[in-house]
Amino acid sequence: MKLSGHEINSQLRQKLEMPTGRHLYVVLGSYERLDRYERVDFPEARSPTGQKLGQPVNVNHHLLERIPDEELKRLVQTEASRTESVKDRLFKELDALVAEKLNGGSFLALKNLEILFAYDLELNCLRIRAANQKHILLLLPGEKVGERVTLFHEAPANNHRTLPHTYVQENHLWELSE
Q1: Count of other CB atoms within 10 angstroms of residue 107
Q2: Smallest Cα–Cα separation from 121: which of 161, 154, 170, 166?
């Protein structure tokens, strides 16, 4: 079901009141619509205590920023022959980033996750960390058709990715209306 940004904020606030269970949420939409949600609607989102939720973290930027320049240069140069080591390093940095951000609070919004999908990184660290009063919201470019969630749906078909239907609960997945 497609919802307005305001409706998503309202449902999110209700979910944030739940202390136990999995707390991973996804907002889907076009890049344009996600940008508008982030600029216009998301700043109005509040926690159950009425506090602002904080700006979404740009995952692409923060992951690359966490790797020293010399090491990043070496990873890029050897990427073709050492894909697994690049994936391992990115995964470790992702897990550390999420852990650090959640250490400072109970809510984390993430955007610009393209690097994770480009390297087919395992996203279970997000599911694992989104529990026990810790909540994670993912802003993902995509659309839901039936039971299938296609990510990067605006790109050529060879760049599409599918979000596993077991990754996020149905009532934790919202699609932005136009």
Answers
A1: 22
A2: 161
